[in-house]
Amino acid sequence: MAQWSKVARRIRVPLGFAFAVLYFWLARPSVRSIVLGLFGIVPGLLVRALASGHVRKNEALTTSGPYAYTRNPLYLGSLLIGLGFAVAARSWWIAAALMVMFVGIYLPVIRDEEVFLRNKFPDFAQYERNVPRILPRMRGTRDTNEAAPGFSLDLYLKHREYNALLGSVAMLAGLIAKMAFIA
Fold first, then answer.
1. Domain of 7, in residue numbers
2. How far, in Å, are 56, 89, 112, 113 from residue 32 at the CA level?
3. Is residue 88 a contact partner of residue 20, using CB atoms and an 8 Å limit?
């Protein structure tokens, strides 16, 4: 499994671009489906943005902001965005493919990252016991680190999280164009 997670880590971005081609081919968007899809896309983008502005990758165990509710808010945000785009596309094939990709690609990567965090940060074991992996709990854990920083725009920009927003806007523009010109 550890070997697959290394492969999955390398192929997830190129696979995403290949999936985008299939996505546009199978998508049958409507005004209603795009509007409904926004109910997943917008919260997903917000969760990713908040998480990106809190995480200090490889420097500290992040337990503040969205990390108080789920250990993997970036992946949760991606999942919400993906589900939103599946709704916008009005295709069960796309929804099924997204779920297969999430289980086959992202879960092994998440498990591999958790092994790294467990080895790097001694506090991770306690954090792992209190905070769920993906689906957030309604009540966050209390961060005992009084110096825990809040959201940082500098971190958001450093992690280039704006690319998720730009990509989503481009995908929505493509769906609207397909709906307007090909339907």
1. 2-181
2. 39, 10, 39, 38
3. no
